[in-house]
RNA sequence: UGGGGAAUAGUUCAACGGUAGAACAGCGGACUCUGACUCCGUUAAUCUAGGUUCGAAUCCUAGUUCCCCAGCCA
């Protein structure tokens, strides 16, 4: 083993298992699969699974299939199928020609079910749903056998074929495996293999009136595709004996193995398809791609780069312990990528007008600004300075606390790339609100440095009043107030300030070219932003992907509505 | 009183009988034309009790706590 290999051992228990299997020669090629049900959009939790499955395949020279687990036509839609493919690609993974559907195997699955019947290992049950539940027993009491459990193979076959033929209404009968009604594992108490569903399937249309259950379809689909490592989440752990039972009792072409890992949970976030669907359906958000949603579509629209998602997933690791990851860890990954890639621009979110009294009326001049402080190849751009400017309202305080470095009466600060200015006078309206600042500038400080070497405590971003353009800026905060929102009562926990729309922001002209391109950009001292698809010529809309780390907010104890903030303060 | 899992810094993950380590968060400092970035330093953990062993986070025993399972959802 090389030093490099020794220094980078299998990073998690799944990769350890795969490595061991390969070392032992149990498989030639690793084959994994990502098996979404197309009943909703993919979210950041799925990203963990996608990165795991595709990542393992990639790292060990194998392949990963994308397989739609489309066994329930009452919940699945083509829109979701399309969205899932789009999102997996966007995340950066490629299934090549290995695109499959459980529905591709319906006929084979059906034939195997007949085999089970002929072997006396499956039977048609006429019990009502109510009776079935009653006879299933409880967690502590065994179930009771169905009165239909001992039908002959012939009778079962006849009934099952008539189920397929559509002779019975929904719910009239089911096909069940004959395993053990007394098992402590409820999944083994004669699980349902097929139920009658007169529904139109996105792919098979109305050719079927019975559909296989997840348990019956999943393992056999894995076996058909030659999956070696079938990786799923913890809640399927006690399905594994059933997964194996099918593979042991059916003549399948291979016997994959199921391994379970802990799904992702995030603070201030709900990752439940049920809840996410409800947020969309009930209009709490604008859609599956609302930038506040933890969906891949939402994160994409918000401006999160796929690399950041992958890096985040890599860092949180894979284990079997239930856990909740601090959303701050995700934000850190986003900032890390964007800091390297996003060009810098100046934008004033909440404008406060300032007039440079000693700057000649009507005069303007161009100054150089760098596009990326750590990347000279990003070049520079010209920005126009003039007598009337806008600065950020938050950058002025009439009665500042001692640690406030920014503008206040009598205080000198630097306007980035431009001049030192000093606040001379505060203009207020009748209501006593500050509406304008009268300032002076020092012509000797052109470019941002004083020849006499004097320093200022702060550098502010600014835009020219005349030469800046208007924009709408959407600030996002967490959708929920609680660090651990309750999925069963999420509505009460909704953050009223999850979306804040700023309609009179001012952008430096160089931002106009960004227009509808999805390029991320850093508004200096504010955060990372990206143009939203709602942008129109003449009306730019920007989404805040994530704010910059803000030490001042912490020092000043400023209230942050809802929070971009994360991590509870230690007591 | 059934079955299946999991317990390591505040959080997430390592350590696979041999010095408990990383990332995020926190704190302190340096740097700075972004209170950003970067850099340096630093606080902080093996669920409990026994046992085996020269040596235990790791093995054994007994507990404790938490999670999942009673869909014709996945």
Structural class call reads alpha/beta
In total, how many beta strands?
25
Largest sheet: 7 strands, mixed
Our measurement of the CA-to-CA distance between the termini, rounded to an integer number of angstroms, reads 47 Å
Mind explaining what this structure looks like?
The strands form 6 sheets. A 7-stranded mixed sheet has the order 10-23-24-25-21-22-11, with helices on one face. A 7-stranded mixed sheet has the order 19-16-17-18-12-15-20, with no helix packed on it. The protein has a 4-stranded antiparallel sheet with strand order 4-5-6-7. The chain has 571 residues and is α/β, with parallel strands linked by helices. Helices cover 26% and strands 22% of the residues. Helix 3 packs across helix 12, helix 8 (214-225) packs across helix 9 and helix 12 (306-316) crosses helix 13. It binds one RNA strand of 74 nucleotides through helix 6, strand 6, helix 8, helix 13 and strand 19.
């Amino acid at each position: 083993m090389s030093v490099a290999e020794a220094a980078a051992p299998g990073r998690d228990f799944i990769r350890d298992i795969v490595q061991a299997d390969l070392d032992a020669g149990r498989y030639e090629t690793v084959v994994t699969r990502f098996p979404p049900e197309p009943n909703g959009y993919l979210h950041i939790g799925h990203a963990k699974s996608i990165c795991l499955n595709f990542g393992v395949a990639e790292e060990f020279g194998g392949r990963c299939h994308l397989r739609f687990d489309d066994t329930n036509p009452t919940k699945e839609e083509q829109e979701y199928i399309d969205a899932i493919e789009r999102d997996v690609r966007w995340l950066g993974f490629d299934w090549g020609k290995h695109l499959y559907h459980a529905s591709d195997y319906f006929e084979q699955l059906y034939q195997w079910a007949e085999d089970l019947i002929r072997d006396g290992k499956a039977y048609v049950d006429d019990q009502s749903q109510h009776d079935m539940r009653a006879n299933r027993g409880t967690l502590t009491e065994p179930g009771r056998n169905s009165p239909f459990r001992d039908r002959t193979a012939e009778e079962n076959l006849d009934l099952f074929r008539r189920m397929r033929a559509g002779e019975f209404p929904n719910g009239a009968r089911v096909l069940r495996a004959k395993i053990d009604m007394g098992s402590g594992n409820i999944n083994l108490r004669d699980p349902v293999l097929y139920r009658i569903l007169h529904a139109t399937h996105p792919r098979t249309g109305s050719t079927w009136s019975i559909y296989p259950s997840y348990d019956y379809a999943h393992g056999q689909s894995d076996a058909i595709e030659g999956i070696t490592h079938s990786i799923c989440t913890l809640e399927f752990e006690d399905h594994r004996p059933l997964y194996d039972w099918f593979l042991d009792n059916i003549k399948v072409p291979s016997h994959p193995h199921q391994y379970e890992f802990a799904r992702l949970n995030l603070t201030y976030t709900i990752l439940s398809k049920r809840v996410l669907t409800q947020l969309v359906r009930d209009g709490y958000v604008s859609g599956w791609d609302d930038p506040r949603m933890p969906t891949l579509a939402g994160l994409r629209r918000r401006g999160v780069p796929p690399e950041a998602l992958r890096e985040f997933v890599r860092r949180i690791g894979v284990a079997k312990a239930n856990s909740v990851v601090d959303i701050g860890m995700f934000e850190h990954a986003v900032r890390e990528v964007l800091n390297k890639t996003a060009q810098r621009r100046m934008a004033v979110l909440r404008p406060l007008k300032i007039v440079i009294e000693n700057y000649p009326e009507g005069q303007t001049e161009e100054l150089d600004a760098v596009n990326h402080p750590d990347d000279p190849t990003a070049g520079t751009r010209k920005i126009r300075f003039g007598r009337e400017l806008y600065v950020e309202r938050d950058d002025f305080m009439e009665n500042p606390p001692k640690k406030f470095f920014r503008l206040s009466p009598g205080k000198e600060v630097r306007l980035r790339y431009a001049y030192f200015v000093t606040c001379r006078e505060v203009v207020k309206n009748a209501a006593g609100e500050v509406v304008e600042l009268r300032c002076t500038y020092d012509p000797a400080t052109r470019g941002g440095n004083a020849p006499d070497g004097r320093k200022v405590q702060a550098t502010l971003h600014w835009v020219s009043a005349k030469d800046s353009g208007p924009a709408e800026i959407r600030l996002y905060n967490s959708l929920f107030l609680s660090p651990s929102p309750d999925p069963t009562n999420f509505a009460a926990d909704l953050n009223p300030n999850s979306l804040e729309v700023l309609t009179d922001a001012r952008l430096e002209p160089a931002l106009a070219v960004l227009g509808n391109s999805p390029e991320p950009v850093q508004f200096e001292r504010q955060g990372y932003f990206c143009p939203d698809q709602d942008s129109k010529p003449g009306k730019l809309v920007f989404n805040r992907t994530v704010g910059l780390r803000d030490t001042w907010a912490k020092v000043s104890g400023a209230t942050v509505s809802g929070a971009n903030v994360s991590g509870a303060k230690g007591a």
